Amino acid sequence: MSTPFEDLQARAAKRWSELTEGESAWIRVGGGTSGQAAGADAVFEAFKSSVESTGVNANVSMVSAMGLMYLEPQVDILMPNGARVYYGNVNADEAKEIVEQHLKEGKPLTDRAYAYSGGDGSGVGNLPELDSMPMVALQKRIATRNFGDTDPHDLLQYVANGGYTALNRALTEMTPEEIVDEVKAAGLRGRGGAAFPAGVKWSFLAPSKAPVKYVLCNCEEGDPGAFNDKGIIENDPHTLVEGLIINGYATRSTHGYVFIRTGHELPIESARKAIAAAYEAGLLGKNILGTDFSFDMEVSLTGDSYVAGEETALMEAIEGKRSTPRFKPPFPAAAGLWQKPTNINNVKTLSYVPEIVRNGSDWFKSIGTETTSGTAIVCLSGHITYPGMYEVPMGMTIREVLEKVGGGVSVGERIKVLQAGGPLNGLLGEDAFDTMIDFDAMSAAGASIGSGGIIVGNETVNVVDLLRSLVAFNQFESCGKCFPCRLGNTHMLEILDRMCQNKAKSADLALLERVGTSMKAGSLCGHGQLGFNPIASALKYFGDEIKSCLAGEIAPGGVFGDGTMILPTRTRP
């Protein structure tokens, strides 16, 4: 007699076979925020209409984005013989021509395609294989393993590609203690910025005998330039749902919350649909997969608050209160959401868990560096040739990511500055570009992997104006609960305003440092404690430029030297 999960796998295999092994071609249009912002919805409708009007035998699906955002909207066509051709920057007007020539006449438009995969390579001209392209070949896709291949709203497609295998193994073959030990042994460190070992964090919650315990997933993600948490949820939500259920089982918790900022509509929709599908398939609720483990999950939203990403402020928001940090202790594992024992993890952290359970800790530990195992999901934007979201093994250097994956500077002569890890982290100069992407190496360089965002600036970027943009963002987003952060950010912004207007005083640099030191020592949460980080790192790499500005020797003209700003510079009235 088959098990509930074997029945689910059989349905999934049938569904995948219908899409990939039948007589119909499969047209996949890349969705997600990046695709839809570039017009993917119109392209999708145009391909559906073209298939109907030409009478060709093809399925048309809106699938997840590949992360190659410079190529949006993307379309790939998988033929019954296994050959797959990828088209980039497609517009709706091209749909009929592609359908007629590629599907009806069997002649891919090689002048419009950018790569191929599968098949014997015949009929594709000089197109490169997808896996030979540096921005693809240098990736190690774990959390993003299904990107570009599956419909994020189809649970069966996820299961057909190994999804929920880890959950089934966890519930039927492993004890909660064994899962915690496996995550510890894998060396998985939190991907929300603090880099605390996830297994150790879980071990704080697991021993509690409380009848109600919570595990939370943090997708507030308000950092400018960061979009990987949202990208995972909108492009492969089930990998997060599966990871959170395993987290709940490992810590003997009863409820899970996926916490998302209001306004992130695609991630919100994807998360809700995935959770509903998991309930329908018996993967959530009572007696999951016929076992005695029960677990519930829901999406919780917050307003437009950056500080809501701090773990205790996040819990306040879920409880319907203002998003401000709590004093600690007590820590969440003892008294968290509604004063019940609670753990909070980032989207990326939880998305690695299914593959760790499925493949083992040794497999995950073999990827990356000695101190930081696994991968980094980096978001490249700004003056970079190939902006996008890329999952690369820890240990690659920043320079390799910029030049080989990102294609180097897009405008100008060179890359001058990077804003890495969000507005509370550092600015890096060329001297740091050979730093490994690794939690400890990045920290030593004066920055952080943080949220994964890397904003690239060329030689025209004015560092002082960029600092002012970052501090203005932090000042606006301070919740105001503690005065070192509230007043400190405001005071630093006033000083940087003076510098940008050539009205700086000789003592302003020392004053900035005193304010930053006070913020670090006296602020309630990381928002104030880390507020001086951008200035400290800028002094390390761009000290001469800052001192020239203090002396009135240069006149800032906007971040890009022409008045254009890279980040919002909002100030409260």
From TrEMBL:
Coiled coil: none annotated. CDD domains: TRX_Fd_family. Residues 464-509 form the NADH-ubiquinone oxidoreductase 51kDa subunit iron-sulphur binding domain. It comes from the Bacteria. Keywords: 4Fe-4S, Iron, Iron-sulfur, Metal-binding. It holds the Pfam family Complex1_51K. InterPro entries: NADH-UbQ_OxRdtase_51kDa_CS, Nuo51_FMN-bd, Nuo51_FMN-bd_sf, Nuop51_4Fe4S-bd, Nuop51_4Fe4S-bd_sf, Soluble_ligand-bd, Thioredoxin-like_sf. GO terms for molecular function: 4 iron, 4 sulfur cluster binding; FMN binding; metal ion binding; NADH dehydrogenase (ubiquinone) activity. Belongs to the complex I 51 kDa subunit family. PANTHER family: NADH-QUINONE OXIDOREDUCTASE SUBUNIT F. This is NADH-quinone oxidoreductase subunit F. It comes from Candidatus Lucifugimonas marina.
